[in-house]
Amino acid sequence: MFVFRVLLISVLMLVAESTKRKSSNIVLIVADDLGWNDISFHGSNQILTPNIDLLSLSGKGLGRYYSHCICTPSRSALMTGKYAHRIGMQGFPLSNSEDRGLPTNEKILPQYLKELGYSTHLVGKWHIGESRTEFLPTERGFDSHFGHRGGFLDYYEYTLDEKWATGTVTGYGLFKNKTAAWGVEGYLTDVYTEEAKKVIKNHDKKKPLFLMLAHNAPHSANEPAIVQAPPEDVRAMKHVEKTGRRIFAAMMKKLDDGIGEVVEALHNKGILDNTVIVFIADNGGMTSGFKMNYASNWPLRGLKMTPFEGGVRVPGLIWSQDFKTPQNLWNGYIHVTDWLPIFMNIAGAAPPNNISGIDLWNSIKANEDSSRQEMYEIDDRTGFASVIYGDFKLVTGHVTEEYSDYEGGDLRGIIGEPPSYNDAIEKSKVYGVLRKIGKPVKKIDYNLRKQIEVKCDRKDTDEICYPNKDKICLYNIKEDPCETRDVSKENPDIVVNMLQLLKVELTKTVPRTDPPLASDPRSLPSLHNNTWDTFID
Ligand SMILES: *[C@@H]1O[C@H](CO)[C@@H](O)[C@H](O)[C@H]1NC(C)=O
Ligand SMILES: *[C@@H]1O[C@H](CO)[C@@H](O)[C@H](O)[C@H]1NC(C)=O
Ligand SMILES: *[C@@H]1O[C@H](CO)[C@@H](O)[C@H](O)[C@H]1NC(C)=O
Questions:
Q1: Domain assignment present for 294
Q2: CA distance 131 to 68
Q3: Residue 54's domain spans which residues?
Q4: Which one of 3, 247, 463, 487 is separated from 194 by 20 to 30 angstroms, measured CA to CA?
Q5: In a domain, 329, yes or no
Q6: Is 514 domain-assigned?
Q7: pLDDT of amino acid 326
């Protein structure tokens, strides 16, 4: 009897051990200032992104993925699972010379994952604090950081220019953990791809891996060379009519190729089958004006830094080898704050309380509707507040009008025939990997792209609603994804309800605390061996 019981207990323990979930690896790839119309998955053949498209087609392309409309807020939300305005990180992005950062009492994603046994690595952009050592990624849960701490870098010199009242200030911005990374050479997108591959290759498989690869691409670089790509890649984009857009297209090719290489590296390491891959943009593209990069949110309205769809409805996808259906779109609402609870679920843990994010992992896997109903975009410095609830979006306050129009239409020009989509797909690294792991690549329906494509019946004579301090605008973003018609008069009850939602959310808003100095002289690169290093310790 005793022997039998011991045996039974050991068998039960064995079963428990084998059913205990093994935490999956998480690879989170972030593109910078990437617009809706800058990937071929959204329907255009002007810029082919076969690796991104195939991950969407064999995973889940996210048709209604929303982010904050600016880098620093969206990265703050990504790291904390909280709306940027709930932690005072909303609005205009951080400069390198500003003493401000994500509050250090916030526990962030790599800290949670590290506690769960993950090794945690950041390759690329940070942009949520760099004036003090305590703000740096390696002080906040990342085992390693290789990349830039500020908004962007020159793709070859790795410098960032700031315009101060005294003139333009230049500094070197590429770091390895806490010190400047000297001796690096090459095109920055390639440099980051190689570094990400190195992290994967050197990873100890006994632990789960969290790799965040936050590319500089396709963000603009310093003036006047605002878009940069290797000449041979630009030459390969002869079909793109406008010169700036042609260089941008080459930047996208390098980004997409790099993603293919990362997927291949995961396969070669033998961990792809237990890895969830997410690819997102941090906010919409900047077609003109401040830090313009020739990105295009067409046909969506508005640019980065606005609450219109072009600023917030951005490319996104999630991929896992376990997704059963060969191809899918997931059209539910999903917000940048949702990644933290989703990743916690994937890691096998419960998400923290008191965050804005919702764990949508099971709904996404099962192709169920999203439980997310509402999303807020609040920028008390520019002076707007907007809410999406169900089919509707309400925008109030002051928006930057010059960034609130329909741009990028003129960037679509093609000379002659664009390159073949199918050829690009079949030559891509992800295609090769999918074949090797037995995915039915031949059965993938590329026409799924047409389902996600946004079409608008906008006429240039339409009267567009611009909100201001006396005027609200209400759009039905499901029927009118281009926000051309104000429907506030027809829907007074919806207006009242949504204003009430905003009123409540505004009471939870933590005001931005700007430092007394915008261009703090202590940050001057010439005081730090010409680098943008920490300057207060
Ligand atoms: C929840 O978060 C808010 C800021 O987003 C903070 O003010 C509040 O103290 C937090 N509450 C708890 C119980 O942690
Ligand atoms: C960063 O520091 C860690 C140890 O704290 C080290 O293992 C890692 O190699 C460093 N990374 C880089 C890129 O230097
Ligand atoms: C200062 O910068 C140069 C490159 O300009 C570099 O070679 C050198 O190692 C740096 N010195 C220190 C102390 O970091």
A1: yes
A2: 23
A3: 24-352+400-431+441-458
A4: 247
A5: yes
A6: no
A7: 58
Find out whether the beta carbon of 146 lies less than 6 Å from any atom of ligand 2: yes
Check pocket membership of 198 for ligand 2, CB cut-off 6 A: no
196 CA → ligand 3 middle, Å: 25
Strand pairing category for 209-214 and 25-31: parallel
Q: pLDDT per residue over 239-272, tens digit each?
A: 999 999 999 999 999 999 999 999 999 999 999 9
Q: How far apart are CA 371 and CA 426, in angstroms?
A: 36
Element (H, E) at 255: helix 243-269
Identify residue 358 by its one-letter amino acid code.
I
Sheet of strand 60-66: strand arrangement: 179-180, 174-176, 144-148, 119-124, 209-214, 25-31, 275-281, 316-320, 60-66, 329-335
Which one has a higher pLDDT value, 97 or 43? Answer: 97
Q: Can you list the positions of beta strands (E) in 239-294?
A: 275-281
Does 148 participate in catalysis according to the annotation? no
Task: Say if 107 falls within a structural domain.
Answer: yes
CB burial readout 76-103, b (16+ within 10 A) else e: bbbbbbbbbbbbbbbbbbbbbbbbbbbb
Give the helix/strand (H/E) hosting 172: strand 167-172
120 within 8 A of 110, measured Cβ to Cβ: yes
Q: Is the pLDDT of residue 11 over 90?
A: no
CATH number, domain with residue 325 = 3.40.720.10
Please say if 127 is a catalytic residue. Answer: yes
Pairing of strands 179-180, 392-397: unpaired
Q: What is the spatial distance between Cα 151 and Cα 168, in angstroms, rounded to a whole number?
A: 16
Query: What is the number of domains present in the chain?
Result: 1
Q: What is the pLDDT of residues 135-165, one digit of tens each?
A: 999 999 999 999 999 999 999 999 999 999 9
Ligand 1 close to Cβ of residue 245 (< 6 A) = no
Q: What is the pLDDT of residues 324-351, one digit of tens each?
A: 765 579 999 999 999 999 999 999 999 9
Give the residue, 476 or 12, on which the prediction is more confident: 476
- This model's pTM is above 0.85: yes
For ligand 2, atom 10, name the residue with the nearest CA: 144
**Residues 532/172, Cβ–Cβ less than 8 Å:** yes
Nearest 10 degrees: Cα torsion 398, 376, 151, 27? -160
Ligand 3 center to 178 CA (angstroms): 14
* Closest to 76 (Cα-Cα) out of 97, 99, 98, 107: 107
d(CA 535, CA 512) in angstroms, rounded, equals 21
